[in-house]
Amino acid sequence: MLSESSLFLKGVLLGSIFCVLMTMLGHIRMDYGKRRRHYEHHHLQAPDEDILKLAEDERTNLSKSFRVYCIILVKPKDVRLWAAVKETWAKHCDKAEFFSSENVKVFESVNMGTNDMWLMMRKAYKYAFDKYGDQYNWFFLARPTTFAIIENLKYFLLKKNSSQPFYLGHTEKSGDLEYVSVGGGIVLSIESIKRLNSLPSIPEKCPEKGRKVWDVSEDKQLAVCLKYAGVFAKNAEDSKGKDVFNTKSVGIFIKEAMTNHPNQVVEGCCSDMAITFNGLTYNQMYVMMYGVYHLRAFGHVFSDVLVFLPVNASDND
Q: What pLDDT sits at residue 317?
């Protein structure tokens, strides 16, 4: 009788241990599954279900309809940055041109003949519209310290109408004036650049230079002129409300996230569909190019519905 009781107790004890082990293993598997979902990559998806229903040739035509002309404002002292931009992200524009304050023998550029950044910007926009207004529907302007992911820009513009008067990027406020910071890059629709270039006939509303009151940054002057033309600044954000045009570098954002979100450094840093980062050195341009366009994690499948193809004869890598 005693031996039977012992056997019964042993059986209960072993069964209990087995149940505990199974429960623990179940929690481990569930937790592992959660971790796997937590670290899934967030790829850009088509913004509308209708795009998923399009045939492949229709999606190809749609991707080709978004043509971006890139304007990079440079000065001779920026020669290293100039070279880095030319060899990295500028290749992904449908067309990119450099606008310089003077002739530079080392690189091909459009000479603006002035060191005044506002005048350079305005002349560059006029040149772009006069020469390419019938070929491109979006005009992206940046400094040589900016790194841009043009495919993300095209994705963001997918549901935007270029015939509407607006411009976008990273907005800031100066008093009552809301403007797009040139540090993060500025995007003008074809309608916006058309209205901007109609303003020289009204110099009192948008003077080129000469007044002390206009001794402010070029992005603020642009905002004032566009406001008179009925074009207003819009801040570009992703679905989570994060900025996609950034006026800082990835490194600075990571440092800030380590302080403000120490348990979510990567998630708390930046948008998954960021378009620009600013404040980069020339060697950081190549690091960004490697990370964005060349580094791949083995086993992860990239299956974006829409692909933006480079133009013919492009050296887009």
A: 57
Which residues, at least 6 apart from 65, have a Cβ–Cβ distance to it below 8 Å?
Answer: 137
To which H or E segment does residue 97 belong? strand 95-100
Identify the DSSP state of 78. G
309, burial (CB in 10 Å: exposed 0-12, middle 13-18, buried 19+): exposed
Which residue from 175, 165, 173, 171 is spatially nearest to 199, judged by alpha carbons? 165
Place of tokens 């910071």: 181
Collect all residues with Cβ–Cβ distance below 8 Å to 110 and sequence separation of at least 6: 97, 98, 99, 100, 124, 127
Cβ-defined contacts of 114-121 (< 8 Å, 24+): 115/75, 116/209, 117/73, 117/217, 117/218, 118/208, 118/209, 118/214, 118/217, 118/218, 118/221, 118/222, 119/208, 119/209, 120/73, 120/218, 121/73, 121/182, 121/218, 121/222
Amino acid present at 208:
E
Q: Is the pTM of this model over 0.85?
A: no
- List the chain residues with pLDDT less than 50: 1-46, 210, 212-213
